[in-house]
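re the bet — no i am not wrong, look at it urself. input seq straight from the record:
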Amino acid sequence: MTEQMIPPPLGGCRSAPVLKQRGQREVFCGLTGIIWLHRKMQDAFFLVVGSRTCAHLLQSAAGVMIFAEPRFGTAILEEADLAGLNDAHDELDREVATLLARRPDIRQLFLVGSCPSEVIKLDLNRAAERLTVEYAPKVRVLEYSGSGIETTFTQGEDACLAAMVPVLPKTEARNLVVVGALPDVVEDQMLGLLDGLGIDTVHVLPSRTIESEIAIGPNTVYALTQPFLNETHAALERRGARHLPAPFPMGEEGTTAWLNAIAIEFGVASETFETVTEAPRRRARQAVAQAAQQLNGKSVFFFPDSQLEIPLARFLTRECGMTALEVGSPYIHDAIHGPDLELLAAGPQISEGQDVDLQLDRCREARPDLTVCGLGLANPLEAEGLSTKWAIELVFTPVHFYEQAGDLASLFARPLHRKEILGVAAE
């Protein structure tokens, strides 16, 4: 720890009682992860096996230009398929053959299951194995579920990456794997920092192309950049890789702690660490301080949505001067979220899962200055006079590492600034 870092709280939230509720939930479809994954993986194609509703969701969520040819599509179940009059596997094989003939640039094909009952009955795993044999070695075919019935929208990425882990080659070499999809510009910043620390055996999952093949083995250590990768975390451990627990790289403090965990693992000298991180840390602190003027002294309430809630609460309370009233997350995994919970000072209610009506009652009673929630709750709460921030925006916006720290704080400051301006105008 350096002298600029805020000391950890005397009592963190890692061992705090967790309110666990199971009831009606506000969730968004896991197919949404395709929107950022298809941009990240340049030689991949995501073929959703689903209904016309799935196709409309992807098109509207992506906002794809009509002149672009996206790397995702939908194998739509028609009435005959739903009635069981056609062999769905034959139909799927035909769709894949047509797709690969038209798009010879595809090297990785993901069959993504959705929630119609006829899709659930399909054995997409067997289909992926059959198609891999048919199209290997040019195309690798994998499958995962993006169903929105029981998952949060960020779990689509988790399911995708978890499906990739078992087929990655084995290695005995010592290497670092950074896990989680980041915008290319943010990934380049991260790789530049790691290179400055002298760590050159670095791979990123997911990689931009299949040629950047990642290998996993007993000498592999991995660091997560996203807090919603529970299944991927488990899959990597099954392959013998070892997790480097650390706060997530959001804000100056989180980024420094994340990098420091890697630096310690690879024996980087403290002087080297300070030299490499000093300038970007200073820029991050200055940017956050400017944006946090609107946030200091304000309260925040997190509904469970993206699984980013715990590291974001740590950032807002420790770097922006906010008070967290409740921090709700769909799932809490101690090995993943524990380091951030340790830094989150005792006080807020930590909740896992959701009974949305009961949580709405707590939010209305608390009257927070800012409520972070899903799209379905934002407008009703705004109508009741509460300022809100859409949780999904925090997934689609670059928010990781030093250069984005000020932007992250600004995302939360804007709703409060807007409310202030509207209040002045109303007067």
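see?? The CA atoms of residues 17 and 420 lie 35 Å apart. told u. also The domain at 30-151 is CATH 3.40.50.1980 (Rossmann fold). so pay up
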